[in-house]
Amino acid sequence: MKSEDELQLQLVHNLSTGDEVLAEQRANPSVEMAGQIAQQLRSKKFDLQKQSLELSSTLKVALASQNKALADSTLAELQQVATQIAQNDSALDETLNMLRPGADKQYDRRTKLTSIELGKTRLESIRSILRDPINQRF
């Protein structure tokens, strides 16, 4: 591949029947399972909020003591936690939407979106393997 400057590779992903079943199951959990997932997400949200408060306190101390290194590292951690909170909130909203009346009408849409994400994830995994310098020697 390395010596072929004009070589192009086209990746195409097709779902198998097993993939479709898997996507359907992941996208449409039972009401009981969705309730359990929502509870886990609420618990994670609480833990993340607690971590955020602790980091905020650490950041205040670092700023008051003019400890730039600690302030910078704490701020970076705080930003990561904020991102995790946003992702968790999004997942919680999606899960709670599955428990609302009429959620079953979105069954096919959720399955299709999950199937698309499965394909995208697989294709990106293959792309990253192909881009890896270790694989460029062939």
Task: Provide an overview of this structure.
The chain is an all-alpha fold. It has a domain at 30-100: Helix Hairpins. Helices cover 72% and strands 0% of the residues. It is built from four helices and no strands. The protein has helices at 17-27, 31-64, 68-97, 107-131. Helix 1 packs across helix 4. It is flat and about 60 Å long. The model has no long low-confidence stretch (mean pLDDT 91).
- What is the strand tally? 0
Report strand %: under 5%
The biggest sheet, with number of strands, parallel, antiparallel or mixed sense and barrel status, is: none
The percentage helix is over 70%
Number of helical elements? 4
State the assembly state of the protein chains.
single chain
- Which sequence of SSEs, written as H and E, runs from N to C? HHHH
Q: Shape from CA axes? A: flat
Q: Which CATH C-level class of the domain at 30-100 is it?
A: Mainly Alpha
Radius of gyration over all CA atoms, rounded: 22 Å
Detail the poorly predicted runs: none
